[in-house]
Amino acid sequence: MHARLPNSAGSLLIAAISGRALAAAARRAGYRPLVADFFCDTDTVALAERAMTLPGDLQRGIDGERIIETLRQLAGDDQPVAAVLGSGFERTTETVDEVARHFPLAGNCGAAIRRIKDPQLLAADCAELGIPHPEFRWERPSDPENWVTKTAGGAGGAHIRRAAGENPAAGRYFQRFVAGRSISALFIGDGQAARVVGFSRQWASPAPAAPYRYGGAVRLRRFDRNQAAIIRGWLSGLVRRAGLVGLCSADLIRAPDGYKLIEINPRPGATLDIFDDAGAPLIEAHLCAATGKAYRLPRFADSMASMVTYAAAPIAQFPSIAWPEWTADHQSLGTRLIAGDPVCTVFARGPSADLTRRLIKGQASRLQQQWEGDRT
Question: pTM for the full model?
């Protein structure tokens, strides 16, 4: 099914591992979000017209056999303008197709996701299109210290590990490690070409078992125009190959010898919060791109950052906190957390990327002192 034209009086059906950012974006665009996710954080529930727990869990993934029943219950008597799928569906593309059979899907179909998330096909497409891309292989390399291992269809960085000591496993592949600065490009595809919304610099929040766990991102005020045009050309080539539509993101590394494209995330991603703008809502652009209609992109005069904070140690009962307005994805009072669980997302805005990143790290540190001081 295809999404109907955007209607500011309508509802949007949202399903993702975490749906808060999509729910906030939907509200900014004037839609009523109906949200199914794993967490049902307090602020997600407050943003949503209705919210339900998405069937499945972080270890096993989304339960494709129960999701349609859940989404039908969530929709109720509403006729959503579209279903928007976030993180968690890359490894269950048959579920994406099942959702599309029952609801108007705005975003990529299962075939497009399968193609762009297949590491072997992506490597081949990049080679044919002249896009610099790290070497890929399924078998263990002879110099594993120069490689990382990843899960095909994985997202968020927690699945990435250094290859030394790793053996081949089902669904895992090897990619040559590229040293440099992590850059992300948020873009919108229409099946034929890509329009870049903007670039961000990302950083990891390493954990013992997840050295590349996602930490945060800061929106860049400036980016070299010539390089931006080259990257847009790369992304347009991949959009045509896979038939990508709607909001997507590209992970790149700025290495000493130039940029290399690492992977594509065929869905609204972690940087949605720092690029969305009520004057030109990205959800509206996402829906319009899916239906072949014109849309506007936001323009930015400053920088903005988002950062995930994680529990450094177990917390038996999460304390009561007066959450500042520059936070989201709040843990609920009394929740038991283990070390490494996400606690909240922190935001900051500033005149430059470097200053904004320093500001957000300071804010996150002060907030962490609150729950660590009250930890029981």
Answer: 0.94
